[in-house]
Design brief:
Radius of gyration: 28 Å
Strand order of the largest sheet: 2-3-1-6-7
Strand content: 5-15%
Keywords: Membrane, Transmembrane, Transmembrane helix
Order of helices and strands: HHHHHHHHHHHEHHEEHEHEEHE
Number of strands: 7
Largest sheet: 5 strands, mixed
Shape: elongated
Distance between the termini: 35 Å
Number of helices: 16
Organism: Thalassolituus marinus
Catalytic activity: 2 GTP = 3',3'-c-di-GMP + 2 diphosphate
Pfam family, one: GGDEF
Number of domains: 2
EC number: 2.7.7.65
Length: 407
């Protein structure tokens, strides 16, 4: 499942990279009307994305949109002349050097609304960088620094991307790719935007390449924002399973006969009271991981608290009963190790010494009770869930760690 999640997160970045690779050679063939439209498009997309990022509290996506839009505006107003001019090369050199570093800063910023006081720190930092670069031209150091920057012009591949920029972009990609989280949509989108801008600076002489790169980057960020908010609304953050809203949405669009199973962790309150909420969270993750392995077409959801749901496309309970029983037995036989945080090694050296020694950690066994109900023709969702709940209550009454069918 982690591999499948990563492949899904790679879909939009792959589309963005493929689109730019295919469209870049064609920009010179576009009519004047199309060129005018694509020149304005980054500003429209960037403004819309900033508004949505503010509404949905997606600060990093909003700040990246701001960086892309500000970069595009700087190119349009300052870098339309030949880079043979020293003044233009000065701006281009520092832009290619600092842009990926600013992208890394955005990647690791805390989530703050773009238009909040904390969120305004990043655009202020960008403005300060511009002032410092401009201020450097007024000092006695300018001739020497300019000569140093121009020493990379001919050495750069194609003469357009200086060596410091290559290093900066490589470091930025490596930092953003390091330790990708389980929900990797935003980091992968940022990596793609960085790669797109590296390509843009490398092909800087191409017509409309900056507009194409900015528009594609912003469309990718827009799609990532939609995916991210969908996950927040429909995916349970702790377990990674679809949540109650996703379950109800699926049930509303499901017709005919199917099997609904309500499942509940036995004595879950005792786990929390005895071992603490951290262990309780481990139990929930364990159960979710095992429920996700349910075969027979079963799909797992976290209904709420310690309660989960399984949904089967089968029309008969007898068909799904072996799959439910297999899941129940798999959970009951799994031993959850309780780690003593006070005995954790203080260093990797101490950890190596402890390896191979007999562990004194305690283990727990978790069990679940299941209530299964087949949807009857014309039966409402509420009635079906009530019958499944009654079957679950019956399983609890009959000793727990068992499956009961609804009547």
């Amino acid at each position: 499942m982690p591999t499948l999640s990563l492949l899904r997160a790679l879909l939009f970045p792959a589309i963005a990279l493929t689109s730019v690779w295919w469209l870049a050679p064609l920009t010179g063939l576009w009519t004047e009307d199309y060129q005018t439209l694509i020149s304005v498009l980054p500003y429209l997309l960037g403004t819309l994305l900033l508004v949505l990022a503010q509404v949905f509290n997606q600060g990093r996506l909003g700040q990246m949109a701001l960086l892309v839009m500000a970069t595009y505006a700087l190119i349009q107003f300052e870098l339309q002349a030949s880079l043979e001019h020293s003044e233009r090369w000065w701006v281009f050199f520092w832009l290619t050097l600092l842009w990926p570093l600013n992208a890394v800063v955005v990647r690791f910023l805390p989530e703050r609304r773009p238009l909040s006081l904390a969120g305004m720190m990043f655009p202020l930092a960008l403005a300060l960088q511009l002032l410092l670069i401009y201020g450097l031209t007024l000092t006695s150091l300018y001739p020497a620094v300019l000569q140093w920057s121009e020493s990379f012009r001919a050495a750069g591949v194609g003469g357009l991307l200086p060596l410091p920029a290559w290093l900066s972009f490589s470091i930025a990609v490596a930092l953003c790719a390091n330790r990708l989280p389980r929900k990797a949509d935003i980091p992968l989108a940022f990596i793609t935007v960085i790669v797109l801008h590296a390509g843009m600076f490398y092909l800087f002489a191409s017509q409309q390449v900056s507009a194409l790169t900015a528009s594609t980057s912003l469309l990718l960020l827009f799609a990532t924002l939609l995916v991210s908010n969908h996950q927040l609304a429909f995916i349970d953050e702790l377990t990674g399973l679809p949540g109650r809203r996703a379950l109800m949405n699926d049930l509303k669009h499901r017709h005919g006969r199917y099997i609904l199973v309500m499942a509940d962790i036995d004595h879950f309150k005792k786990f929390n009271d005895t071992h603490g909420h951290d262990v309780g969270d481990d139990v929930l993750r364990l159960v979710a991981a095992q429920l996700e392995k349910t075969s027979g077409g079963g799909r797992a959801y976290r209904y709420g608290g310690e309660e989960f749901t399984l949904l089967f496309p089968s029309a008969e309970l007898v068909e799904t009963r072996p799959f439910i029983e297999a899941t129940r037995e798999r959970i009951a036989s799994y031993q959850l190790t309780l780690r003593d945080t006070n005995q954790r090694p203080a260093s990797s050296k101490d950890g190596k010494k402890q390896r191979g020694q007999k562990s004194k950690a305690r283990t727990l066994n978790v069990t679940m009770s299941f209530g299964a109900a087949r949807r009857e023709s014309g039966e409402s969702i509420e009635a079906l869930m009530k019958r499944a709940d009654n079957a679950l209550y019956k399983a609890k009454q009959n000793g727990r760690n068992r499956v009961e069918d609804a009547v």
